[in-house]
Structure formats: C-alpha cells, structure tokens
Amino acid sequence: MREYTYHPTLDDPLTTTETSVLNSAGSRVVTNDYDSDLDATPNEAPTDRLYRKIEQGWTLDAGGNQVAFTDTTEYGYDANGRLTSIAGPRASEYTEIDYDATSARARRCGAS
Predict the structure, then answer these.
(1) How far is 77 from 81, CA to CA, in rounded Å?
(2) What average pLDDT does this structure show over 93-105?
(3) Which helix (H) or strand (E) segment is 69 a member of?
C-alpha cells in the first residue's frame, strides 16, 4: 500500500510511503524536498523546484543483515531556473549541465 502527500500548488508528491519489501514492520519513504534551504526539515516553504530527493528504507548489508539506509540526491539551478547539477545519491555520482546562449542544453557531463 502506498500513501502520498502532495505539493500545495504543483500537485506533485512531496512524500511517498510504502511498506518495505525487506522489513514488513518498516517503511520505504521518498521525500521530494522543494525547499532551497536544504536543512533537516524538508518542505517548510516549498517552491516550484525540486532541490532534494531523500530515500529512506531498508537494505541488506554484506552479511545479509537488514540495515536502515538514507540516500539523498540534490539538484542545483542557475538564476534562470535551469537545472545545472545533480549530485547523488552516491558521493561518486555528480552531473553538471551547461547551456548555450539560446538556453539549449549544450553539455551534460558527470558520472551519472
């Protein structure tokens, strides 16, 4: 079963919560954070841009034990509101997006 909360004006999900497939007593929660402050409390003053996606749930470690995880992906924008970077969820995953003078995406580079 999935439960959703929604952005107050965009009608996009702020959170999606579902039962974990590994731990029936736990949940998998995806939080789409539309705040630009990136502090510990998401969506205090949601904007129209997604700044961070936080995924929390359960996974298995190398020994097969259930362990909690949190993965975060952050999105950066330029002064014109164009997406310019995607960082995460792993530290080695970072993508930069450049635009030419016509605002067309000119280059995308990174390890994503």
Answers:
(1) 5
(2) 83
(3) strand 66-77
